[in-house]
Amino acid sequence: MSIHTAKRSRPLSPNVQIYRPQLTSVLSILNRITGVALSGAAVALVIWLLMAAAGPQAYDVVQGAVASWIGQVMLFGTTFAFFLHLCGGIRHLVWDTVHGLELRSIYISGWVVVAASIALTLAAWVISFLMKG
Amino acid sequence: MIIESSDQVPRATLLKRFPIPRNFGVSPESRIKRGKTWPVLAGATRVQTFEIYRYDPDSGENPRLDTFQVDLDDCGPMVLDALFWIKNKVDSTLTFRRSCREGVCGSCSMNIDGVNWLACTRFISDLATPATIYPLANMEIIKDLVPDLTHLFAQYSAIEPWLKSKTPAPEQERLQSHEERSKLDGYYECILCFCCTSGCPSHWWNGDRFLGPAVLLQAWRWLADNRDEGAGERLDNLEDPFRLYRCHTILNCTRTCPKGLNPGKAIAEIKKAVIERRS
Amino acid sequence: MRSPLARAIGLGSAREGVRHWWAERISAVALLPLTLWFAASIIAHTGSDYTTFVAWLRTPLVATLMILLLIALFHHTALGLQVVIEDYIHSGGKFAAVIAVRLGCFALAIAGFVATLRIAFSS
Lengths: 133, 279, 123
Description:
Structural class of chain C: mainly alpha
Shape of chain C: elongated
Largest interface: A-B, 34 and 61 residues
Number of strands of chain C: 0
Low-confidence stretches of chain A: 1-5
Strand content of chain A: under 5%
Number of helices of chain A: 4
CATH architecture of chain A: Up-down Bundle
Order of helices and strands of chain C: HHHHH
Helix content of chain C: over 70%
Helix content of chain A: over 70%
Oligomer: heterotrimer
Largest sheet of chain A: none
Distance between the termini of chain A: 76 Å
C-alpha cells in the first residue's frame, strides 16, 4: 500500500457491548461457564481419588478441606454448576434430534432448565444434610 | 417471559446489556465517544429520544453517539419513519440503507434497543426511553448505520446457492409435489438481512471462518430441495469444524429473525444430515 | 489482496468435524446416568468414614462404574475444552493449548484409574 492510499481502517460496530442479553444467549454462555468450571471439578475428583488411594491420613486431609466453609461454598457452587450443565446438556441433546426448536419451546425449556437446576441443587443439599444428621 | 414469536419486543429492563464496560475489548478506531445532542424542534409535544451511532469516514474521528428528539406527532409509527424525520428535519447527513419500507427487502436491518431487527417493521411505541440505534452488530461500518456486507455475501456465494443437476434438464418444469415444495417453507423466505448472523456470538468471534445462520439456512434450503442433485458435495463443503460446527445452538438467530424464520432449526437439520450419511 | 470469495472460502472445507461433535454427544449420553449415580452415591455417603467409603469403592461394580465415569468425563471434558479454546484463541498458541488440554485430560484419567484400581485391589 502506498502512502497515498493509506487510510484509517473502518470501525467495527459494537457487539457484546450493546447486544441485549436474552434467555438464548445467557443460558448458552452459562452452559459454557459451568462446563469449564466442571472441568476444574473433574481435576478435583481425581485428586480426591488419589488421596483416598493413598490412605486414611491423606483422605482426612481432603475431607477436612471439603468440610471447611470455603470447601462447602465451592461444593455448593459445583453442585449448582453440575445440575445447570446437566439440564442444559439434556436440552442440547433434545435439540440435536431436531425437536423443540420453535421459539415457544426454546423459552419454556429454558425456564425449565433454570428451575430444575435450582430445585435439584437444593434437593441434593437438603438430602445430604438429612443423611448427615 | 415465554416468547412465542420473534416480533415480541422484550419488556424486561433488568439487563439491557451485559455488565461490561461500554468500550470493552474494542480497538482504538472503534471506540465510541459522546456526540452531539440535537435540539428539540419548536412546537413538539410528544417526543421520543433516540441515541444513534454516527460515524463519518471523512472526518477522521471516532464513531460517536448522537441524541435526537423526534416529534411523534409529525412522524410515522415505525423506526424507519423516525430516521427519515431526523434526516429531513434535523440532520441531513444521517445515513442508512432502506428500500421497500415494508419488511421484504432486508435493507434497513440494524440494532434497535439491543436487538437486531428491520427499522421499517419496528414500532416506535415499542422502544425504550431513550431508544438506542446501532448498526448491525460486529460489522465494519462504512458510514453511520451502513455496514459492509461484502464478507457475508461472499460466504453466501461460497455455499453455491443454485440448483446443481447432472440429469439433463427436462423439456418443461422440474416437477415437485406439494409435499416436496413444503419442505422449502421457512427457508426460501429469507431476505438476507443478516440480522441473525450479526446477532450470533459465534460469528462475532469466528466470523471469518464460521458461515453463520443466514448462509447455513440457505445451505439447508438447497439441501432440502428435491430437485437439487448436489447434496453430497454440499455436505462435504459444509462439514468443517469452523464452517458448520462453530454453531453451538446459542439460538440468538431464531430469536431475532424479523421474518420469523428458524435458522437454528435449519442448522440442526444440516448436522442431522451429516450424521445420517455416515451411519 | 484476496477477493472476498477467496477470504470466505479460506483453505477450503476440512470435510471432517462430525467425529468430534458425535463423540461429544456420545460421552454426554454416557455421562447422564454415570454422573447422576456418582452424585447420588456421594450424597448417600455424607458423613461416612474412610473404611465405609473404601469398602464401597472396592466392590467390582462400583470400581467399574467409577472407571467408566472417568473415561466419559475426561473424554467429554477434553472435547468441550478444545471447542472453547478454538473459539477464543486464534493465534498459534491455540495448538499448544489444545495439545496441553488433551494430554492433561488423558493423564488425569489414567491417574484416576490407578487410584481406583489401587483401592479396588488393595487388601
